[in-house]
Amino acid sequence: MTHDAASARLAEAMLTPLVIEHATDHACTRGTHSRIADGRVVCWSPPRGDDEVYAVDAEIAAQPLPPHLEVRWRGLWDGHDSFWAAWCASEVCAKLWDVPIVVMAARSPVDSSPVTLAGHTVTYAVRHEGDLVVAFGVLSG
């Protein structure tokens, strides 16, 4: 899938509503999920083509920055909101590349979309959804 095709497919998939509810109330097994520190879960179930793999990650926008990451990533982001956008985008890439986030966090956050690792490209987008920063991604290649 080309970057343009992946971007178009991601934009279309992002029209699928998110389900945000307390994790104990959520029984879905078909979507891609992100668990939030306050006990909620974000579920995203975009329609999938044969070769499409998606991921979602979300964080509470107003939560404090983790001190160790704030120090490690200092100067790589422009404030609170951009930190959480970079973190969520990095989490989405880690999920789609099947790389532990601790490995990703040891480096710098991902660059602008698309991002390629070992021949696998992730196209991602980040937006605010209520009190959350949410990153959406699709894997190609």
Overview of this protein structure:
With 141 residues, the chain is of the alpha+beta class. The protein has one domain. Helices cover 29% and strands 30% of the residues. The protein contains four helices and seven strands, in the order αββββαααβββ. The chain has helices at residues 3-13, 67-72, 80-97, 101-106; strands spanning 19-22, 32-35, 40-44, 53-60, 115-117, 120-129, 132-140. The protein has a four-stranded antiparallel beta sheet with strand order 4-7-6-5. A hairpin with a 2-residue loop joins β5 and β6. The longest helix has 18 residues, at 80-97. The relative contact order is 0.22. The model has no long low-confidence stretch (mean pLDDT 88).
- Structural category is alpha+beta
Give unreliable regions as ranges.
none
Into how many domains do the coordinates divide? 1
Round the mean pLDDT to the nearest integer and report it. 88
Question: Tell me about the biggest sheet?
Answer: 4 strands, antiparallel
Radius of gyration: 15 Å
Strand content: 25-35%
As a percent range, the share of helical residues equals 25-40%
DSSP E strands, number: 7
For the termini, the CA-CA separation is 7 Å
What spatial form do the alpha-carbon principal axes imply?
globular
Strand order of the largest sheet: 4-7-6-5
Individual helix count = 4
Order of helices and strands: HEEEEHHHEEE
Helix and strand layout, with pairings?
Blueprint: H1 3-13, E1 19-22, E2 32-35, E3 40-44, E4 53-60, H2 67-72, H3 80-97, H4 101-106, E5 115-117, E6 120-129, E7 132-140
Antiparallel strand pairs: 1-3, 2-3, 4-7, 5-6, 6-7
